[in-house]
Structure formats: C-alpha cells, structure tokens
Amino acid sequence: MAANRPLSKTFCEVCGQVFTPRDAMQTYQNRYFHPHCFCCASCGNSIAGKPFYPKPNNQFQCENCNNALAPVYEKKQQQRVYLIIFFFVLVVVFVIKRFNRVQKQNDFKNDIITATVFGTNSLF
Ligand SMILES: [Zn+2]
Ligand SMILES: [Zn+2]
Predict the structure, then answer these.
(1) Angle at CA 99, nearest 5°, toward 95 and 103?
(2) Ligand 1 centre distance from Cα of residue 34 (Å)
(3) HSE (CB half, 13 Å, CA atoms) of 99?
(4) Which pLDDT does position 109 carry in this prediction?
C-alpha cells in the first residue's frame, strides 16, 4: 500500500536495488520486494497480490505449486497410515495365534489332568 510506504531508502529483498518513488512495492513481514521479484520458488511466477505460502529459507510458493505438491505429501501420509494399520493387523494376528496356542496347550494339560484323575480313580 502506498500509505505504508517507508520514507527511508529501502532495498528490494531479492535484487537488492533501492526503490525509486515510481517502483511498485510488495511488503511482507517488514521486508520489501519488487512485485516482479516477489516470485514463487518453484515456478518463478510473480506472486505479488496473490495468495502465497511462506516456505523455509525465506522462500515463497504460489498457490498452484503448493496445491500441486500437496497431494504427494498426502499420499505419503496415507501410505504411512496403511503401513501402521498393516503392522497393527500383524500384531493382532500374532497375538491371536499365540493365544490360541496357549489355549490349546491348556486344553491338553486339562486332558492329562483329567486322565490322571480317572486313572487314580480307577485304581481305588
Ligand atoms: Zn527487486
Ligand atoms: Zn509456483
């Protein structure tokens, strides 16, 4: 906005040139850019006056590039969820099998105990 334009000499954050009174100015977090210098880090298109996404290392990304890259991230997240579900199912199957084996062993023990009891009973 022209009203917020600083009176002191200001440099463009990207090209380092001093702003002349005729230069258009894009400000972001007390930093100043030429509109043609305020560009998307991915496609290089100007993002002056457009929605953009701040990225690490003082870079910005336009909405298009952000949307284009977002599904890749979501897919990775989804794959991770599937992997967690897969391991969870594996653990559940393992626990059930183990439990069944212990149960069978217990049944077997019970059989022996019963047989012994029958045996002693038949002796007396
Ligand atoms: Zn510039
Ligand atoms: Zn872009």
Answers:
(1) 175
(2) 4
(3) 6
(4) 65
Q: How far apart are CA 10 and CA 16, in angstroms?
A: 9
Please tell me the distance between residue 42's alpha carbon and the centre of ligand 2 in angstroms: 5
pLDDT at residue 96 is higher than 70: yes
- Which of the ligands is closest to the CA of residue 61? 2
Q: Token digits for 97? A: 């099998």
pLDDT tens for residues 8-36?
678 999 999 999 888 888 899 889 999 99
Tell me, what's the pLDDT at 45? 93
The residue with tokens 């009176």 is 7
Q: How many Å lie between the centroid of ligand 2 and the Cα of residue 53?
A: 10
Report how far ligand 2's centroid is from the alpha carbon of 108 (Å).
Answer: 69
For residue 52, give the ligand nearest its CA.
Answer: 2
What is the value of pTM for the model shown? 0.49
Q: Round to whole Å and give the CA distance between 23 and 35.
A: 9
Q: Give, as one character, the DSSP assignment of residue 14.
A: T
